[in-house]
Amino acid sequence: MRKNLSKKLAVLGILMVTAAGAAGCSSKPAETKAAETKAEETGAPAGETTAAGEEKASGGDVLKVTYSGTPEIHEKQYLMDSFFKKFEEENNCKVEVDFVAQADAIKKIQSEQEGKNYITDIIYADTANMSPYVNGGWMQDITDLVNSTGSTYTQMFDHSTNKDGARYFVPMSFDVYVTCANKKALDYLPDGLTEKDVVSGITWEQYAKWAVAIAAGEGEGKTMMPANLTGSQLLYPMGGMSLAYGGGFPEFTSDGFKDALGIIATIAAGDGFYAEQDQYTAPTDPLNSGDVWLTFAHMAPVGSSYNAAPNNYVIGAAPKGSKGAGSTSGAWCYGIAQGAPNQELAEKFINYIADPEVNYDFCSNYGGSLSPIEEVGDILGSDDVVMRAGIEMLKTTIVTGVPASDYSDWNAVKLLYGDVFNSILKNKAVPGDDFLADVQSKMEALKN
Question: In whole angstroms, what is the distance from residue 227 CA to residue 353 CA?
Fold first, then answer.
């Protein structure tokens, strides 16, 4: 076992809630207005290249990583000072990392691949943006390489990472959706419920009743969904609600999805929603300001608020529907680019990240993520109570990945969920079958 593994479990405190299930795309602590959740975060400008071993003399092999999505400052420090540096030390090499926005990363790799100007060895991408890499033929088949590592990976994201029986990416971490409540909201809990019930997971009907009671008592709605449609994240919590009632994701016509919409309609009819929620794709800022007291959201922005003021919030499992708790989930993954100039070193890197102890260290330090490797559960210590609880709770939660690769325009699918949500807000009722059938037809037209 590697020595001196960092055990920064404060960030993982949010995992107490993971019974809530899991979308997208990945974990980012400081979300702001119109900011995307981690699974689909935007990055810094293209071309921000950093070398983990800058103090080393030149010489030796160089592994070049295109990292699609810019981490927070503390995450980047861990990546460069520990995660990549350990690989350098073990392999007597240098790692150069190019941090780029997701859209820029796709353009960069496309240019390299189509021009046969191979520069990148390793690509880091999330499942919601993986389709261009896999369908474009830009990635190597790493099936045998991953199988040879001996680590057991979750199959939750195979729909995105694999194609036609071949694996092109391997997951490094993933995130889920959870409940977060300001402790002031506990005064409005429905009769018979306690803080402990919130942590273990209340029902969606109780959640709706709670949201309406908060609004009635405070004179304004304080429950939020990420309703901004620019870089929309709205479909992910709505998808998790659908799963909880036996519906699918993405889809608009099942009885389960309609039951989930009934919860939203109840909150809307009771004026329970935060009036300015359409300005946000994540709840961090309104949670921090106290404008929002209740939300079902991605664990990264929720974790940001919780970690900044843990005494102010209660983190809980995803609310339950008739079929249990449900959530969408997205993963961040590594793969080897076609024509990688440093093939042997790239293969060593895939072996490196498959080490359960390396993955444990990464997940402990990088945004409070969950591990996709089963064996990580075997090395948890007695002080890793929270991470163990999160892993165990996921076993009883209905979780689905993000099938973005099935659609020609995933953003267009997102906007359809926005149409449904805004119809509910306007009419304070579940849309009629004709409306939902029309939306379903529009979505099916987007299928590849």
Answer: 36
Element housing 178 (H / E): strand 177-182
C-alpha span between 34 and 226 (Å, rounded):
9
User: Does residue 317 contact residue 199 with C-beta atoms inside 8 Å?
Assistant: yes
> What are 179's strand-pairing partners?
296, 316
Amino acid at 426: K
Comparing C-alpha atoms, which of 31, 40, 41 is closest to residue 283?
31
Contact 162, 168 (CB under 8 A): yes
Residue with tokens 């440093």: 342
CA–CA distance, 218 with 15 (Å, rounded to integer): 29
Q: What ranges in 297-394 are assigned the alpha helix state H? A: 299-308, 343-353, 356-365, 385-394
The closest of 331, 406, 337, 330 to 141, measured between CA atoms, is 337
In eight-state DSSP terms, residue 80 is: I
Asked if residues 308 and 288 have their Cβ atoms less than 8 Å apart, the reply is yes
Cα–Cα distance, 131 to 403 (Å, whole number): 9
Helix (H) or strand (E) holding 182: strand 177-182
Q: Are the CB atoms for 130 and 405 separated by under 8 Å? A: yes
Q: What is the DSSP string of 322-338?
A: TTEEEEE-EEEEEEEBT
Please give the average per-residue pLDDT across 194-222, as a whole number: 96
Q: Which of 99-108, 144-153, 362-371 has the weakest average pLDDT?
A: 362-371
pLDDT digit string, tens, across residues 119-144: 999 999 998 889 899 999 999 999 99
Q: Which residues of 255-277 are buried (b: 16+ CB within 10 A; e: fewer)?
A: ebbbbbbbbbbbbbebebbbeeb
Give the up-direction half-sphere exposure of residue 176: CA atoms within 13 A in the CB hemisphere: 36
What's the order of all strands across the beta sheet hosting 398-400?
320-321, 324-328, 398-400
Among residues 296, 320, 321, 325, the alpha carbon closest in space to that of 395 is found at 325
For residue 286, how many other CB atoms are within 10 A of its CB?
21
Q: Encoding tokens for residue 143?
A: 């099936």
Strands 94-100 vs 62-68: parallel, antiparallel or unpaired: parallel
Coil, strand, or helix at residue 433?
A: helix
Contact 346, 340 (CB under 8 A): yes
In tens, the pLDDT along 411-425 reads 899 999 999 999 999
